[in-house]
């Protein structure tokens, strides 16, 4: 399994680093290419939207198998982690977790276990 993430302000990147995922690829502008299956980690952008770079990436790379979202429940309670939900629905894949900002250690442990179960 490969891992791909988008992170504007470092929260998602921190999650990926704490999970110690080997060779996770960062989506920088959406033009990246990846072969095979991957788990996507993403933030949510303005009022519940999928970040444009993530949308562009997913239009070209078809191997998504699951999604993990990081949002902000205090500032965006009505659209909390909507990007993860929208991607899951659009591509018919499970949401492994929807965390607030950095996520808790317990949440990360749960994500790790779910990823291992997918390998
Ligand atoms: C302009 C803007 C809009 C946002 N909109 C949402 C939102 O609708 N829902 C949500 O859960 N989080 C929203 N967030 C919060 C981010 O998704 C959240 O802070 C996330 O952890 C950022 O990840 P990053 O630090 O890796 O970029 C928004 C943040 C910004 C800056």
Could you characterize the architecture of this molecule?
The protein is 34% helix and 22% strand. It contains four helices and five strands; from the N terminus they run E-H-E-E-H-E-H-E-H. A five-stranded parallel β-sheet has the order 2-1-3-4-5, with helices on both faces. It is globular, with a radius of gyration of 13 Å. 31% of the residues are buried. Residues 7-13, 43-48, 70-72, 76, 79-82, 101 line the site of flavin mononucleotide (FMN). Flavin mononucleotide binds at residues 7-13, 43-48, 70-72, 76, 79-82, 101.
Helicity range: 25-40%
Using DSSP, what is the number of strands?
Answer: 5
Radius of gyration computed on alpha carbons: 13 Å
Bound molecules: flavin mononucleotide
What is the number of independent domains?
A: 1
Q: Which residues form runs of ≥5 with pLDDT under 50?
A: none
Q: How would you name the oligomeric state of the polypeptide chains in this document?
A: single chain
Query: Sheet bearing the most strands, described?
Result: 5 strands, parallel
- Number of helical stretches of at least 4 residues: 4
Say which CATH homologous superfamily is assigned. Answer: Flavodoxin domain
Helix-strand pattern: EHEEHEHEH
What is the CATH domain class?
A: Alpha Beta
Shape: globular
CATH topology: Rossmann fold
Helix/strand-derived category reads alpha/beta
Order of adjacent strands in the largest pleated sheet: 2-1-3-4-5
Measure the end-to-end span. 6 Å
What percent strand?
15-25%
Query: What is the mean predicted local confidence, pLDDT?
Result: 97
The name of the CATH architecture is: 3-Layer(aba) Sandwich
